[in-house]
Specification:
Blueprint (H helix, E strand, L loop, with lengths): L9 H18 L3 H16 L3 H12 L5 E2 L2 H7 L1 H17 L5 E5 L19 H7 L4 E6 L12 H10 L6 E12 L10 H9 L8 E12 L5 H4 L1
Parallel strand pairs: 1-5
Antiparallel strand pairs: 2-3, 3-4, 4-5
Helix pairs in contact: 1-2, 1-8, 2-3, 2-8, 3-6, 4-5
Length: 230
């Protein structure tokens, strides 16, 4: 959730925070615990967001353990993310045609490099509120595709390449993500009161954690350099 947006208006955020404050008085719990409950209820009844709820519950109760993300569901629910990552894999192969694996890393404001998955790439608010910017994506192509690949003979690779000449084909690719889930209480944003409350939850056991996950996809050859497609 690096630089997570918490896709919600200022008025909605204030309503959640005020509901939490009222709940704190009524139920004798801390304001941050009441706001946590209000968010969970909001994502359950008003704007159902099951993935975001699971992430927030893990932040509250997971004791900082890694969270295993369903990367296939993430990519399937957000076609713009899938297309962006496939394009970046193709860009790296154009620079280094001999590569069969690589990484796409950017930490936004922290290092001045755009994250591989940005807030504006999401099609789903649920997934946006689950992860926000994702800072690290690692990829590896699977199978016979590269005449320069030392894992196979040149003859075999060139033979496979000849069979594919002028066709669109699919290459299995493994994609792995890694990203910290944190809140940002000191950055002004419409949902700042929520970020501040979630940060205070650490005093009663909540903890930042790292989201990880791996999945395999079929990469259409239209994303690959011409020398692979021909």
């Amino acid at each position: 959730m690096s630089d997570e947006a918490f896709s919600i208006s200022w008025f909605q955020a204030q309503a959640i925070c005020q509901t939490g404050s009222a709940g704190s008085v009524m139920h004798g719990i801390s304001s941050e615990e009441a706001i946590y409950n209000a968010i969970m209820n909001y994502w359950d009844w008003i704007s159902p967001q099951p993935n975001a709820r699971r992430h927030l519950s893990h932040y509250r109760n997971g004791q900082g353990a890694d969270y295993l993300e369903n990367v296939r569901s993430l990519f399937n629910a957000n076609p713009r993310i899938r297309a962006r990552i496939f394009e970046k894999i193709g860009d790296q192969l154009r620079i280094n045609p001999r590569a069969d694996s690589g990484s796409i890393i950017g930490h936004g404001a922290d290092d001045g490099v755009e994250p591989p998955i940005r807030q504006q790439d999401y099609d789903s608010d649920d997934w946006l509120n689950s992860n926000g910017n994702i800072d690290e994506v690692y990829w590896g192509l699977i199978g016979d595709y590269n005449p320069f690949d030392n894992r196979e003979t040149d003859d075999r690779a060139y033979y496979l390449r000849a069979l594919r000449r002028g066709t669109v084909f699919l290459i299995p690719v493994e994609i792995r993500i890694r990203d910290p889930y944190t809140w940002h209480p000191y950055e002004y944003r419409p949902s700042q009161c929520i970020h501040q409350a979630m940060e205070r939850l650490k005093s009663s056991g909540a903890a930042d954690y790292t989201t990880i996950g791996t999945a395999q996809f079929l990469l259409p050859s239209v994303y690959l350099p011409d020398w692979i497609r021909r």
